[in-house]
Amino acid sequence: MDEGMIVEAIPYKSRSLRRTSVKKRLETEIKKTNIKVKEKIPKKRTLSKYRRKTANAKERERMKKMNDVFDTLKNVIPAENRGDDENKKETKVTTLRSAIAYINYLKQLIDDCDAGLVDETVFTDNEEEKDREAKEKMASKIVTEAAK
């Protein structure tokens, strides 16, 4: 629209306003008179109470299983390979790092054995000693339970 035509179309008392102010005022009035068509905005689907509770229960169960697996992993890794202080709480990240370090240590050990750098009797003697200690523990446990 031409500004001159707009100014002539407005009432006399509004002519004291600046042309830009008058133009903006008329534009807003024209916008008000136009019929607004609301766009349909899809709403986020909210879960029902039942579905939310079941989803929360599934997540709790999943986390419980995950924590059990981490506890098992902590028990498998030897204490000297954990690399943590007694004062610090062992987190999942430190457990994973310890497991990675332990796996790399075992890989290196296997490579050294294959290369003939390590004597195999060291490991066989150690395994026999562990078996003997385990049998002694089981025997002492059975004896203490039988004494009760």
Outline the structure in words:
- The longest helix has 28 residues, at 49-76.
- With 148 residues, the chain is mostly helical.
- It has six helices and no strands.
- The radius of gyration is 39 Å and the shape is elongated.
- Helix 1 crosses helix 2 (19-33).
Estimate the mean pLDDT confidence. Answer: 76
- Helix content range: over 70%
Radius of gyration: 39 Å
Spans where pLDDT lies below 50 across 5 or more residues: none
Major sheet attributes: none
Strand-pairing-aware structural class? mainly alpha
Number of helices: 6
Coarse shape: elongated
The separation of the N and C termini measures 104 Å
What string gives the helices and strands in order? HHHHHH
Beta strands, count = 0
Strand proportion:
under 5%
Task: Throw out a few tags for this protein.
single chain, 72% helix, 148 residues, 0% strand, mainly alpha
Strand and helix layout:
Layout: H1 3-9, H2 19-33, H3 49-76, H4 79-82, H5 92-115, H6 120-147
Helix pairs in contact: 1-2
Question: Summary?
Answer:
The protein is mainly α.
